[in-house]
Amino acid sequence: MTQARQNHIQVVAHRGASEDAPEHTLAAYMKAIADGADALECDVRLTADGHLVCVHDRRVNRTSNGRGAVSALELADLTALDFGTWKGREDATESPDWGDPSLTSVLTLERLLELVADSGRRVELAIETKHPTRWAGQVEERLLQLLGRFGLAAPARAEDSSVRVMSFSARSLHRVAAAAPTIPTVYLMQFVSPRLRDGRLPAGARIAGPSIRIVRNHPAYIERLHRAGHRAHVWTVNEPADVELCAGLGVEAIITNRPRQVLSQLGRP
């Protein structure tokens, strides 16, 4: 593996620098940008009053001091919750002080887009739409409207786009591809269905997003994807041996909770 080839692997901060700071908070994304991440990954869900927020789970119970489904709560309800202190509870001997509550309150996608716009360098965004949801296609519709407000919905070419949309739902990606054909789309996979084992992807998907488990168990799959003309963005790659495996296979992006560590392993300061 040459240094030049390693330099072409994009390092994507999964839910921000989520090993060091509470996932999907402003604190985690600010840390990821400071660490030098090439891109930020986030999950988006639609609130009851139509705002896109960065929350992974269907319910807020795990990552906040509240309860309930994101889709049934309004933004004001979510803003009143603390999305940070749960991280300190993982280690009873150390309860970190995240300081400004605004760094650990619910993060809207709009605020994350503002952070990226003000970062002073090119930072890409990998936005995952979560399905199934009661809002169905409204998620993609609101997402593209918001990207349009930031001038990100219609890049001249896919390779010029600083945003890509990811999903385990092929239908979600098809909606995005139909409405915004130059925004890259990533089909996420926990397993490879028999009809896709030759490297094909569903209609509307341009990039494969296999889990690291798939790559460990079937490393030849990456070569099949490349032969079919597709790129590979692998999640969630945290262990040094897995980083080495992905780099050796020539994947195009590594999605990790540890962006600084992965950058260091790839020889990038």
UniProtKB/TrEMBL annotation:
Concerning Pfam families, the annotation shows:
GDPD (PF03009)
Q: Which residues form the GP-PDE domain?
A: 9-266
For this protein, the record's InterPro entries field holds:
GP_PDE_dom (IPR030395), PLC-like_Pdiesterase_TIM-brl (IPR017946)
Source organism, top-level taxon: Bacteria
Under which name does UniProt file this protein?
Glycerophosphodiester phosphodiesterase
Q: Which organism is it from?
A: Streptomyces amakusaensis
